[in-house]
Amino acid sequence: MEDVLYFWKHSTVLDIGECLTIPDEFSEQEKLTGMWWKQLVAGAVAGAVSRTGTAPLDRLKVFMQVHSSKTNQLNILGGLRNMVQEGGVLSLWRGNGINVLKIAPESAIKFMAYEQFKRAIRGQQETLHVQERFVAGSLAGATAQTIIYPMEVLKTRLTLRRTGQYKGLFDCAWRIMEREGPRAFYHGYLPNVLGIIPYAGIDLAVYETLKNRWLQQYSHDSADPGILVLLACGTISSTCGQIASYPLALIRTRMQAQASIEGAPQFSMLGLLRHILSQEGMPGLYRGIAPNFMKVIPAVSISYVVYENMKQALGVTSR
């Protein structure tokens, strides 16, 4: 059982830019020896490098979510060209700073909350069922998102900013507070929290199914799946979770951005959903999903390589 916990981590190891997955389990030995926090640090560094490497595709995704429509058919090359023409090559990394900055607090809060919710749900039981892990993980994710959500709003505004619009992170925060008030920092909060349920649920269900199928058929001598199987299972499960929760992610991003777009109507979550469906149909809820898929494989690959190197640097022992 400890081997399975050790070898089959994917939330800590693989970062695709979304932090809505159920936290990984750590064995008692990992907790006693302090290896758990070293793995979390390695995961945070891997996430930072991975997000920086795929930031242009992430910015393009947000750009297409907000600005693409039936009348303005943005494609991938056209979107990248527009961004480079407006602000130069470095503008492709707008919003990446805060996207990296929020990894550490979000991961730490989610892990601590997950341990507390597990303890409350478990009671006298020794282990949790998958359904109970889902409940504890979803509650932990909602807790972390509630606390760091203003950073999500700032990330969207900084990602979409025009050249010279803000001097930096604090200037952006100050202007939002001044013009829109503190409530602006929680625009899109409801679809964001609701999105945790399909994303985390499907990601966990698919990953556990693939993991158990592999263990039943191939784990005769060792629970170690090897790099390709681990990456494939993690990529498939995360992609399935993204497809299910993507419409809510798009609505969240539009709600975060709509106050900053001059003349744009201010919709509620249901109002925006109705507006998108009436104007663009179902495809309108999946604007920007192509660059989102394009960044999955490079993001997963970069985060895995960096994670393994960071583990060695921090002295995490391998079995």
From TrEMBL:
It comes from the Eukaryota. Keywords: Membrane, Mitochondrion, Mitochondrion inner membrane, Repeat, Transmembrane, Transmembrane helix, Transport. The keyword Cell cycle does not apply. The keyword Repeat applies. GO terms for biological process: transmembrane transport. Gene3D superfamilies: Mitochondrial carrier domain. It is a multi-pass membrane protein. Pfam families: Mito_carr (PF00153). GO terms for cellular component: mitochondrial inner membrane. InterPro entries: GDC-like (IPR002167), MCP (IPR002067), MCP_dom_sf (IPR023395), MCP_transmembrane (IPR018108). It is found in: Mitochondrion inner membrane. The chain crosses the membrane at residues 184-207, 227-251. Solcar repeats lie at residues 34-120, 128-213, 225-313. PANTHER family: SOLUTE CARRIER FAMILY 25. Belongs to the mitochondrial carrier (TC 2.A.29) family. This is Solute carrier family 25 member 23.
